[in-house]
Write a structure and sequence with these properties.
Number of strands of chain B: 15
CATH topology of one domain in chain A: Alpha-Beta Plaits
CATH class of the largest domain in chain B: Mainly Alpha
Shape of chain A: elongated
Number of domains of chain B: 2
Oligomer: heterodimer
Largest sheet of chain A: 3 strands, antiparallel
Order of helices and strands of chain A: HHEHEEHEEHH
Bound molecules: iron/sulfur cluster
Distance between the termini of chain B: 37 Å
Largest sheet of chain B: 5 strands, mixed
Number of helices of chain B: 21
Number of strands of chain A: 5
CATH architecture of the largest domain in chain B: Orthogonal Bundle
Number of helices of chain A: 6
CATH topology of the largest domain in chain B: Cytochrome-c3 Hydrogenase, chain B
Strand content of chain A: 15-25%
CATH class of one domain in chain A: Alpha Beta
Strand order of the largest sheet of chain A: 2-3-5
CATH superfamily of the largest domain in chain B: Cytochrome-c3 Hydrogenase, chain B
Largest interface: A-B, 43 and 44 residues
C-alpha cells in the first residue's frame, strides 16, 4: 500500500524537490566573474615575471638553471658579463614563450637567487599569440607591478654568500 | 626462486630463458614461440590463475639482435600475485602470437603496441592503429629511431616570429576515397547481411557518435552499428587527444615529467602525480618521510572525492538531472580552493616531488579540511535524496551496461567498474601504500555489475574517503616532508646561496637530474578511475629509457563494445559516464 502510494504520488520526486527548494534560501556562491574576482592565495602559480632587488638591480644572474629545469622549453637565456666587472654576470637577453608554459613552477624552484616570481595575474588572453613571446623588459615590468615589495640586495642580507653577483670587495677575505 | 617462476620453469624447461625477481616481482623471459602455452598455463593452472591482464608494453632496443621486447603484466586476483612475462622479437619479423583468446582485455593493449611500436600480433581479431590515425604512414613513433618532434612538420624554436606569415594554401576539401572506406572496412563482417527485397530493407545503420559530442567526456568517437535503436557493434576510435606523453618522457628528466603527468587525467592530477612518483621511488628504493606519506594519502583521497564529484555531476547531467551537477561542483570548488592554497594551482597541481611533497599542510588548511569533512557526508545524503530513489534515474541505470565479474576480470577492468561487479579488487587494500594500511576503511563492492551498482560504489567510496582523511588527520605525524637523500632531493632553497655543497647539489640536480639504477619497475596505484600504473625502464641515465602508462580509461574503453551490445543508443551515454573516462588519460 505504502509502495503504491509512493508510486502514484511521485514521492521521491517531491522529496527531491523539497531539497531543491531548501536551496533557494541558501546564499548563492556564484561570483559574477568579470565584476567580482576571487581572492587568490599567496603562492598562486600565475603569470611569470622577473624580479629586482630594492636598489633596482635585476636579480637574475644568467645562470641558465631555469632554462634547464623547464620541462617545456619556454625559457631562453643569453647570459653575459657585466661590462667592466668580470666577476658579475647577468642575463643579457631573457625570452619566455608563454604559449608553451604549463605554469608548473619548476623554474621558480630552480632559480638559485629567486629572480623569477609567479604573480597572481591570470587574465592574459590575447588576440595574437605572438604577443605572448615576452622579452626581459616586459617580464621585469610584470615583476615591478606584481611585486612592489622588493628584497634587499643579497649581499646586505647574508655575509658569506656564495654568489657570482657580488663585486670582489664585498667577498669576505680569508684572514691572512 | 619464486614459486611462480619455479612452476613455469618446471612446466616449460625449454621455453624459459631467464627469471628474475627484481623489485619483488617475478619476471620470466620466455621464447617467443612458447608464449601462448606459457600464458595458457598461467591462466588455467589452478595454482597460478592469472586471470587479470594488467598491461602490455613494448620496449625498443635498437642495438640488440632481437630488437623489441614485449612485456606482459599479469595479475592473479585470487592469489594476489603479479607476474611479468617478457619475450623478445626480431626486427625483421616483429610478430607475436596474440593473447586475446586468453584475455579479451588484451585487444586494445595489443593494438596500442602495434600502433606505437609496430609489433604485429598474429590472430588478433582487429589489428588496426588505435591512437594514431589509420592512414598515418610515418612509422611507429615509440621506436627509438623516430624523432620526438615527428618526421613531418617540425617544431621550430623561434622566438622572433615571422610577422609576415604566408596564408595557408587552400586545403583540399574532399576526403580521400581511402578515408571514406575506413569504417566500412572495419565493420565488414557485420555489414549488409539483410538482402534488400525491394521496398523493405533490413540492414545496419552506421552512426557516428563524437568526436564532438558533449557526453563523450572529451573527444572520443564511437562508430555504432545499429539495428533500429539497438547497438549491434560499437567501434571505439580513440586518439584525438594523443600527445605522445610516453615519447616526450623519454626526453625529460625524472623530475620534469611530474608536471606532464598532471595532464593525463586532468580531473585528478594528484593521483597521477602520486602514481608516477611512487614508481620512480620504487625504482630508486627511496623511502619517504612519514608525514609526507600521510599528506600524500590525504591529498590523494581529496582528489578521489573531487574525481567522484565530477563523475557524479556529469553522469547525472548526461542522464538529465541538472541540479546534482551544480551541487557537486559547489563541493568540488571547496576542495579545489584548498588545493590552491596548498600548491598554487587548482587542476594542474604538480604537488608531488620525488622524495616527498612540495609544501606542508598549514594548521589553517587542516582546520578547513576538518570543517569540510564534517559537512560533506551531509552533502552526499543530499545528492542521494535526488537520485537514489528517483524513478528516472533508476530506470536509466538499473540493468544498464551490465558486466559480469568474469567478464570484468577478463577485460582487465579495475577500480569502481570492477568493484561494481562484485570483485573486491582495490590496489590500496591489495598492496597498501602511503598511509592506507594504517587507517580504517572498507572497500565497497557492488553486486550486479550494472550502472546503478557502480553509482552506489562510488557514492560509498566518497564516504570511505572521508574516513580515510579523518583517520590520517588524526594521526598526522610531525617531521620533514622531503626525504633526506642529497643525491636525489634538492637542498632547501635557503641553503642554496649560503652553503657551497648545497649550491653544487642544487645545480647538479636541476641541470643533470638524478640517476636511478638500471632496471625496470611497474608500480600500480589506485586512482579514482581504476588502476593507474607506470612502468619505467631505466638504463641508468637521468631520463627514463621507456615509460609506459597503464591508463584505466583506455583499458575500460576496450570493454565498451562488449558492454554496449544490445542496449539503446541513449544508454551509451550512460556507459561513458559509468566508466568515468577521461580522454586525456585514455589517449595520453
Ligand atoms: S612555469 Fe614551468 S613551463 Fe613555465 S617557464 Fe617555468 S618551468 Fe617552464
Ligand atoms: S632567472 Fe634565475 S635561474 Fe634563470 S637564469 Fe636568471 S638567475 Fe638563473
Amino acid at each position: 500500500m505504502k509502495a503504491f502510494l509512493e508510486l502514484v504520488t511521485f514521492s521521491e520526486i517531491l522529496v527531491g524537490l523539497k531539497e531543491t527548494f531548501k536551496h533557494l534560501f541558501t546564499p548563492s556562491i556564484t561570483l559574477q566573474y568579470p565584476h567580482e574576482k576571487r581572492n587568490l592565495p599567496n603562492g598562486y602559480r600565475g603569470m611569470l615575471s622577473l624580479l629586482r632587488y630594492s636598489d633596482g638591480v635585476e636579480k637574475c644572474v644568467g645562470c641558465d638553471l631555469c632554462e634547464a629545469a623547464c620541462p617545456s622549453r619556454v625559457i631562453t637565456v643569453v647570459s653575459a658579463e657585466v661590462p667592466g666587472e668580470p666577476t658579475k654576470r647577468y642575463a643579457k637577453e631573457f625570452f619566455m614563450d608563454m604559449t608553451r608554459c604549463i605554469f608548473c613552477g619548476l623554474c621558480v624552484e630552480a632559480c638559485p637567487v629567486d629572480a623569477l616570481g609567479m604573480t597572481k595575474e591570470y587574465e592574459w588572453a590575447v588576440y595574437d599569440k605572438r604577443s605572448l613571446h615576452l622579452n626581459k623588459e616586459q617580464l621585469l615590468e610584470i615583476g615591478d607591478r606584481a611585486f612592489p615589495e622588493r628584497e634587499r640586495p643579497v649581499q646586505d642580507q647574508y655575509h658569506n654568500v656564495a654568489t657570482f653577483n657580488i663585486g670582489l670587495p664585498q667577498i669576505p677575505q680569508k684572514p691572512s | 626462486m619464486h614459486p611462480v617462476c619455479e612452476a613455469v620453469q618446471k612446466a616449460f624447461p625449454e621455453a624459459v630463458l631467464g627469471v628474475s625477481e627484481a623489485y619483488q616481482t617475478p619476471t620470466i623471459e620466455v621464447q617467443r614461440d612458447s608464449l601462448i602455452p606459457v600464458a595458457t598455463f598461467l591462466r588455467e593452472n589452478g595454482d597460478m590463475d592469472f586471470d587479470h591482464i594488467t598491461d602490455i608494453c613494448s620496449v625498443d632496443y635498437p642495438e640488440d639482435d632481437e630488437r623489441f621486447e614485449v612485456v606482459y603484466f599479469l595479475h592473479s586476483l585470487p592469489h594476489r600475485q603479479r607476474v611479468v612475462i617478457k619475450t623478445k622479437v626480431l626486427e625483421d619479423d616483429p610478430t607475436v602470437e596474440s593473447v586475446t583468446s586468453i584475455w579479451q582485455g588484451a585487444n586494445f593493449l595489443e593494438r596500442e603496441v602495434y600502433d606505437l611500436m609496430g609489433i604485429r600480433f598474429q590472430n588478433h581479431p582487429d589489428l588496426r592503429r588505435i591512437l594514431l590515425p589509420e592512414d598515418y604512414d610515418e612509422g611507429h613513433p615509440l621506436r627509438k629511431d623516430f624523432p620526438t618532434e615527428g618526421k613531418g612538420w617540425r617544431c621550430s624554436f623561434d622566438f622572433f616570429p615571422d610577422l609576415a606569415e604566408q596564408p595557408r594554401s587552400e586545403i583540399d576539401r574532399d576526403a580521400a576515397e581511402r578515408e571514406r572506406q575506413v569504417f566500412a572496412r572495419s565493420n565488414g563482417e557485420n555489414g549488409h547481411q539483410g538482402e534488400s527485397d525491394g521496398l523493405q530493407r533490413e540492414e545496419e545503420f552506421l552512426l557516428n557518435m563524437g568526436p564532438q559530442h558533449p557526453a563523450t567526456h572529451g573527444v572520443l568517437r564511437v562508430v555504432l552499428a545499429l539495428k533500429g535503436e539497438r547497438i549491434v557493434k560499437a567501434t571505439v576510435d580513440t586518439g584525438y587527444l594523443h600527445r605522445g606523453v610516453e615519447k616526450l618522457a623519454e626526453g625529460l628528466t625524472y623530475g620534469q615529467i611530474i608536471p606532464h603527468t598532471d595532464r593525463l587525467d586532468y580531473v585528478c592530477a594528484m593521483t597521477n602525480n602520486y602514481a608516477y612518483v611512487r614508481s620512480v621511488e620504487t625504482l630508486l628504493g627511496l623511502a619517504v618521510p612519514e608525514r609526507s606519506e600521510y599528506i600524500r594519502t590525504i591529498v590523494a583521497e581529496m582528489q578521489r572525492i573531487i574525481g567522484h564529484l565530477f563523475w557524479l555531476g556529469t553522469q547525472a547531467l548526461d542522464i538529465g538531472a541538472m541540479t546534482v551537477f551544480f551541487w557537486t561542483f559547489r563541493e568540488r570548488e571547496e576542495l579545489l580552493d584548498m588545493f590552491e592554497a596548498l600548491c598554487g594551482a587548482r587542476l594542474t597541481l604538480n604537488y608531488f616531488r620525488v622524495g616527498g611533497v612540495d609544501s606542508d599542510f598549514e594548521p589553517d588548511l587542516v582546520a578547513r579540511l576538518s570543517r569540510f569533512l564534517d559537512e560533506f557526508p551531509g552533502h552526499i545524503d543530499e545528492y542521494d535524496t535526488l537520485l537514489a530513489k528517483n524513478r528516472i534515474w533508476l530506470s536509466r541505470t538499473k540493468d544498464v551496461a551490465v558486466i559480469s565479474a568474469e567478464d570484468a576480470i577478463n577485460f582487465g577492468l579495475t577500480g569502481p567498474v570492477i568493484r561494481g561487479s562484485g570483485v573486491a579488487y582495490d590496489v590500496r587494500k591489495f598492496s597498501p601504500y602511503g598511509a592506507y594500511g594504517e587507517v580504517e576503511w572498507d572497500v565497497p563492492v557492488g553486486k550486479y555489475g550494472d550502472t546503478y551498482d557502480r553509482y552506489w560504489v562510488r557514492m560509498e567510496e566518497m564516504r570511505q574517503c572521508c574516513r580515510i582523511i579523518r583517520g590520517c588527520l588524526d594521526r598526522l605525524p610531525d617531521g620533514p616532508i622531503m626525504a633526506d637523500a642529497p643525491d636525489i632531493v634538492p637542498p632547501p632553497k635557503e641553503q642554496v646561496m649560503r652553503d657551497m655543497q648545497s649550491h653544487i647539489h642544487h645545480f647538479i640536480l636541476f641541470t643533470h637530474g638524478f640517476h636511478p639504477p638500471a632496471g625496470a619497475v611497474y608500480c600500480p596505484t589506485e586512482s579514482p578511475k581504476g588502476e593507474l600504473g607506470f612502468y619505467i625502464v631505466s638504463d641508468g641515465s637521468a631520463r627514463p629509457y621507456r615509460m609506459k602508462i597503464r591508463s584505466p580509461s583506455f583499458v575500460h574503453l576496450g570493454a565498451l563494445d562488449h558492454m554496449s551490445r544490445g542496449y539503446l543508443v541513449s544508454d551509451l551515454v550512460t556507459m561513458f559516464g559509468t566508466y568515468d573516462v577521461v580522454m586525456g588519460e585514455c589517449d595520453r
